[in-house]
Amino acid sequence: MRALAHPIRVRMVVLLRGEALSASDLARRLDLRFGSARFHLHKLIDADIAIPAGERIDRGGTALLFRVPEGLWFDLDAAFVDHSALDPYVIQLAQSLRRHNIEAACGPLAGGAFLAQLLARLLGSEFYFTTPAPPEGNGASSARYQLPPGIGHRVLGKRVAIVDDVMSAGSSLRATLIAIESHGAIPVVVGALHVLGTTGEDFFKERGLRIETTGRTPFDSWRPPECPLCAAGVPLDDPSRPAA
How far is the C-alpha of 62 from the C-alpha of 143, rounded, in Å? Predict the structure, then answer.
């Protein structure tokens, strides 16, 4: 999303996921001038990332409130171009991961790898990443990721945090888990800047892995036979593809 390429807008999205806010609220929370806050908010509105969420009587006037819609695909890859907006959340996540005594952080390309590198620097740990490989079958469990050639032996016996910028079904994290376990690593915790829904989180909890995150948002996801949109004939949309 081009609208998320500016760090201020990334911070706005994080705030608007938690509650409905006005331009004045965002200005105060982010220590911005009102005009700047309104400008960036309208960029999010124009991109349908922020939507109207009612009104509030405020100091004798009416303040328009906005929020981020539930179910919006949230991709932070563009934010890593200038990660200053993410720094507070990366630091918070690093503090949560520190108590797990990890020796390495590993994430899937692209956002997960960027995050793993930032976390490894803060934690003084090793950094690894996985890359996509040809999938096997269909569904979340079909995704395959692999460590780059020649480094798999380095994770043997090490306590590893597997991380991604955003986790929903957790397909890339599941594949990363399989990849590092195949090389003898010991996964001890899963980290994400934001968790959408419970599908991915439930998967890892069943395997005894704690989820550390800086934020959560409800997010509906279904297996294809149970999806009401599929049943209604709504065509699939790939959020990674640019709009026509």
Answer: 49
CA distances from residue 38 to 8, 31, 46, 79 in whole angstroms, order as listed: 11, 13, 12, 20
Tokens of 222: 């279904």
pTM over 0.85: no
Which helix (DSSP H) or strand (DSSP E) does residue 152 occupy? none
Residue 240, both tokens: 């990674």
What's the fold here for domain 77-225?
Rossmann fold (3.40.50)
3.90.1310.10, 1.10.3660.10, 1.20.58.1610, 1.10.10.10: CATH of 2-67? 1.10.10.10
For 213, the token pair is 């995150």
Query: Which two tokens mark 60?
Result: 């004798």
Q: What share of the chain is helix, strand, coil (3-state, %, to 5)?
A: 45, 25, 35
Higher-pLDDT residue of 163, 136: 163
Q: Answer yes or no: is pLDDT of 23 > 80.
A: yes
Phi, then psi, of 86 in degrees rounded to 5: -90, -15
Domain coordinates in residue numbering, the chain: 2-67, 77-225
